[in-house]
Write a structure and sequence with these properties.
The protein has 308 residues and is mainly alpha-helical. It contains 11 helices and 6 strands. The radius of gyration is 21 Å and the shape is globular.
Amino acid sequence: MSTPAISGGTSFFTGFTRLCKGLAVVIVGGHVVVQILPSAVEYLALIPARTIPFAWNLITAGYLEQTVYGVVISTIGLLFIGKLLEPIWGSREFLKFIFVVNFLTSLGVFVTAISLYYITRQENYLYMPMSGFQGVLSGFLVGVKQIIPDQELSLLKIKVKWLPSIALLVSIMISFFTEESAAYLPTLIFGTYMSWIYLRYFQKKPETKLRGDPSDEFAFSTFFPEFLRPVIDPIASIFDRMLCRRRETSDEPRGYTLGGAPLPGSDPIEASRRRERGARALEERLAAERLGAASQAEGSQGDATENV
């Protein structure tokens, strides 16, 4: 199914969902609190040495931005990407995705920081305040990759399916030059990987009561260039079997199994249908935006004619 390149209009800056607006207020509000009460960082940000007993910072850290540009990037990403994902997933599933990815990302960063401390014995890994919404934002890119992988960005002339990989590659390159960006790198990596695991194996589709997306187009190797996939696929298949004992045969449909029984959501055809519905929903949204822009332009011309 062919899809048009993503473009904008006058309504590009409208149509934000109520849930996304509410979460944006939380992010902005958290930043304001930190500016007024700097000591709040010690209780809200992820500080590995204090996560026990302050275990709630595994949740609160993801919604706390300590810099102005972090607030701007997180708010813009939440509003614009959320405008695409929430209508397709539903508000409940969208909020669940944010919560799960945020928590698992913080947990992964916590374990990584503790491990690095025991390896290097550098206490800065224990006491560096880490926070930010960038883990969930990277997860959003994975969600867009799943829904409309072949959509093309008109400005960059690249397909949407490469956005998570490009974001990680750029972040890794920047981390070699600035220490501050290196602190965000684990969050971006875990956000990307945890969101893929959730969407690949666990996300439930209310309309079909199926779980996951076992299609080859959403395999882990699709995050890498074509020439690397023969190397990535055997490694990824090990974790694949660990999670749900994937069974592949040449004469049967490929799917996920647990104890010999197929898991719900193991139909690749249904996964393709979900992507088609996502692309169709985007087409309808873009068509509605173009129609609204045209109507507004006609109305403006009519008012101008009347004034003359």
